[in-house]
Amino acid sequence: MRVAIMPEGYVPRDEVSDLLVSKTARHGTLTAADRAAIRGVRAKVSELSVGQDAVRQGDRPEVAVFLLDGMLARYHTLPTGDRQYLSLHLAGDLPDLQSLFLTTMDHSLGALNRVRLARLLHSDLRSLILKRPGVGFALWRVPLVDAAIFRQAITNNSAREPVARLAHLFCEVFHRSRAGIAPDRSCPLPMSQAQLGQILGLSSISIHRALTALRKEGSADLRKGRIEILDWRSLVRRAAFDPLYLHPEKDSVIAQRPFRGR
Amino acid sequence: MRVAIMPEGYVPRDEVSDLLVSKTARHGTLTAADRAAIRGVRAKVSELSVGQDAVRQGDRPEVAVFLLDGMLARYHTLPTGDRQYLSLHLAGDLPDLQSLFLTTMDHSLGALNRVRLARLLHSDLRSLILKRPGVGFALWRVPLVDAAIFRQAITNNSAREPVARLAHLFCEVFHRSRAGIAPDRSCPLPMSQAQLGQILGLSSISIHRALTALRKEGSADLRKGRIEILDWRSLVRRAAFDPLYLHPEKDSVIAQRPFRGR
DNA sequence: CGGCACGTTGAAGTGACTCAATTCGCGTGG
DNA sequence: CCACGCGAATTGAGTCACTTCAACGTGCCG
Prior knowledge:
The structure is a homodimer.
Chain A: H1 14-25, H2 32-39, E1 43-48, E2 53-55, E3 63-69, E4 72-77, E5 83-89, E6 108-111, E7 115-121, H3 122-131, H4 133-159, H5 162-177, E8 186-188, H6 193-200, H7 204-216, E9 220-223, E10 226-229, H8 232-239
Antiparallel strand pairs in A: 1-7, 2-6, 3-7, 4-5, 4-6, 8-10, 9-10
The first copy, chain A, binds a DNA duplex through α7.
């Protein structure tokens, strides 16, 4: 018999609330009451070291992960033991909101570097959504954008050549990293070439060759766990990267980009 | 300048409401009031012939697609004009709910055979969700299950060999087709081998060889747009298919126990 | 009956994979 | 401070599988 766990040690925390409010505000317009309600969500903060999992395939969590610092990777574990990475998550992400409504985890979330995260009580999030529908609508967007990223990953891994695949991954990670942040020519991507292979459906050798190609043509590089953008334009061209799928529009900002193609 | 379209011709329709209620009920427990509210959603019914699109990449729809009959396919159109299929949708699916919260379509939905569909007014769905949170919670599950299917597609197209890929696709389509329905050894899949290639990231020749292999080993076949299951067990084994990701569990947490704590 | 799209099959090319050896980077311990 | 060790990156060689190309067969619809 399964017993509900009392929310021991879960308390509202300013640091978490601040970030949660700003994350939510990115997805919708919030009233003062909305903000106040968000600040009532109880959380527990913890840390993970490289390779540790925040949630595991098969779990039935009572909390949702909110990433404060570091990078998480979502992955499937195959019967053979092989790993397929599905998406990457940065500080400010809620990679786990789906667990509010789908009880059993069909994948895991593991730390790619040292990670700080908050666990938010499902029960608090549910009542937040009920009491503050505006917040609910904003939160609804989060897993929908994740889904758009999954779709793009299908296309990337199925229809693009190795070099374009890697270029597209770089574009996505870089674009998401610096969304609104000061211009910088680099961003973190703490993964080995073998792990990149497990993202893109390629061998580590192919990753290496693709990376070498991007270096040679002077569009991007990867060193010490950081993506270095050498020529953004050429990288975007190489990847056929179109950030539309990241749905930056908040409510109804116009994404002007005529659709072409057949 | 874009002008909001008046909901001309949109009316509640029993046929649509019936199906919508039962679809929603599959994702949560509904009260009588919930059912009544769902029945108030206005819809317009239309038909598509093979190859026509229900929604296109770049659109900013004011309605959500509800599939009554036939099969829809979600796809990306690449700059080269190539097509990458992302997911398939069967009668009863709401493949388009995301458009409620993400204004611009990042993909298209096209008909694989003759299709009947209803278009549901976003405005009605939004107020339904506001007025009936229980229904909102049930609807929330729909795109989340879609996302789980996307994740599985990433793994399928990136980490499995051609024969396993095809087998997995067959398993998924068959499993979803007959969810709860009378036992049958076949189900529709109205796609050419070339199109299957565009789902699985393979050439049409590879699809043909993989299909031949499945035939030879007596696990499944595809004829006249129908999957024929010859040996379900062996097909499942070949595909390493685990239906967990389809999240068949109707979520008891939400509807039956409002929320605890607080 | 004719056309066209799709399925089937064979053959050849190529690109990604595996295997293997060497180097590099960095943290540890002497 | 330097030697060592280990994981990761780099590089080359050879194999294999998927792709492309091309020809032919088949079934369906006008």
